[in-house]
């Protein structure tokens, strides 16, 4: 029988769990926005609580998760390979499909070699902790994704974090670091909350000046920005200057898993030494086939990238013209800053009731007082979808005192 809260001792390791009441408090107010079960989806619209709403919070950037060709590719390989690999890549879990995908991704990303991981999170956590050791220093942007932070924490390397996009501070940290230490700069290529692209040109300049290496996490960049969808470095024409680039399959590639590309020797070292690679079951056949087909479609149907950019510009400019604060977004990730947490939850609920699903992001995901709704868009959104989303934002924004009728923000901190 479970103990009541009053019976829990303060030194009980579970005390923090019994003391956690915030989620229940938000649920009681009818404002809880998380773990909403989708009952059906065609990608751009979803069924939630028995009603259809427009999905404006997915990372399905190319709109391929429901593409019939992708679904058929997954179905077909199950007939040959079954539903799983039952082991790690290191032992019995390597299929010819894995090798084919690694070869094609290395070619697409114009790097020597590629290694697959079972999730995007494992890709960064497993690669960073493997490549950086106790004699090395990691320089990490404070807005980097949690999987990068985790990788730095479990490595034996010294980690020096710099303020988001503050490359003057990064330069000072590089100057202070031990000259004999191995050095690697790690940054998101596209930051997942702000939708901004890293200053890759300046990162390259600093890494060359200080004899460091550069690692970019392009989870939200590959299949989204750059020449042919090759990511953040390609927007600057600097892919050759970036040593390691990681990506995920859970976004533009409509699947699950992740990958890292770089020099052959470095990739082989990670392949043979990363615990996340060696001790995790490999990507299931259907997931691999899905990525192969999505990669093929990405390269053949370049209109998807053009449409995604067109949509991003339209939504960003329209939301800004209404008076919303969208930070400095440059991609299909467009945040709308609301302010206080409860206000954000109320705004989220208003949008949901108006037929639009977005993501509510509150501290510690963002700084206190900067809670936001994160919107993100797909190449398959229609003009009608977009205008209905904008109509909902205008209606709820005015009703809740975020903006006025004339396109001005009413937030005190604006």
TrEMBL record:
InterPro entries per the UniProt record, alphabetical: Aminotrans_II_pyridoxalP_BS, Aminotransferase_I/II_large, AON_synthase_class-II, PyrdxlP-dep_Trfase, PyrdxlP-dep_Trfase_major, PyrdxlP-dep_Trfase_small
Domain of life: Bacteria
Keywords assigned: Aminotransferase, Pyridoxal phosphate, Transferase
Swiss-Prot/TrEMBL cofactor(s): pyridoxal 5'-phosphate
The UniProt record lists the keyword Transit peptide: no
Positions of the Aminotransferase class I/classII large domain: 53-393
Alphabetical list of Pfam families matching this protein: Aminotran_1_2
One GO MF term: transaminase activity
Family: Belongs to the class-II pyridoxal-phosphate-dependent aminotransferase family.
Annotated protein name in UniProt: Aminotransferase class I/II-fold pyridoxal phosphate-dependent enzyme
Organism: Fodinibius halophilus
């Amino acid at each position: 029988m479970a103990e009541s809260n009053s019976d829990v001792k303060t030194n009980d390791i579970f005390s923090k769990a019994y003391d956690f009441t915030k989620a229940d408090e938000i649920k009681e107010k009818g404002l809880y926005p998380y773990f909403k079960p989708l009952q059906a989806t065609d990608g751009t619209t979803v069924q939630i609580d028995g009603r259809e709403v427009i999905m404006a919070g997915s990372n399905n950037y190319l709109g391929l998760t429901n593409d019939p060709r992708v679904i058929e590719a997954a179905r077909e390989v199950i007939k040959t390979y079954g539903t799983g690999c039952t082991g790690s890549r290191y032992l019995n879990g390597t299929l010819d499909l894995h090798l084919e995908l690694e070869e094609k991704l290395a070619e697409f990303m114009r790097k020597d070699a590629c290694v697959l991981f079972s999730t995007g999170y494992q890709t960064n956590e497993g690669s960073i902790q493997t490549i950086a050791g106790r004699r090395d220093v990691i320089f990490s942007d404070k807005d980097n994704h949690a999987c990068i932070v985790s990788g730095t924490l479990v490595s034996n390397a010294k980690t020096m974090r710099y303020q988001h996009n503050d490359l003057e501070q990064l330069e000072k940290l590089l100057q202070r670091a031990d000259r004999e230490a191995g050095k690697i700069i790690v940054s998101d290529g596209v930051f997942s909350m702000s939708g901004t692209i890293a200053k890759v040109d300046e990162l390259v300049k600093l890494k060359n000046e200080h004899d460091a290496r550069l690692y970019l996490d392009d989870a939200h960049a590959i299949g989204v920005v750059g020449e042919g969808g090759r990511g953040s470095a390609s927007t600057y024409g600097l892919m050759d200057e970036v040593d390691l680039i990681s990506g995920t399959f859970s976004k533009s590639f409509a699947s699950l898993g992740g990958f890292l590309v770089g020099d052959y020797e470095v990739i082989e070292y990670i392949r043979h030494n990363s615990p996340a690679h060696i001790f995790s079951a490999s990507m299931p056949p259907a997931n691999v086939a899905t990525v192969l087909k999505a990669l093929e479609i990405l390269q053949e149907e370049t209109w998807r990238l053009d449409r995604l950019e067109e949509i991003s510009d339209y939504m960003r400019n329209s939301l800004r013209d209404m008076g919303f604060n969208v930070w400095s977004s440059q991609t299909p990730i467009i945040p709308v800053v609301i302010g206080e947490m409860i206000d954000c939850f109320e705004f989220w609920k208003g949008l949901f009731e108006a037929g639009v699903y977005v993501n509510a992001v509150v501290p510690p995901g963002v700084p206190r007082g900067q809670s936001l709704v994160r919107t993100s868009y797909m190449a398959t959104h229609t003009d009608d979808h977009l205008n209905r989303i904008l109509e909902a934002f205008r209606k709820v924004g005015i009703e809740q005192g975020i903006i006025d009728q004339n396109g001005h923000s009413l937030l005190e901190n604006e």
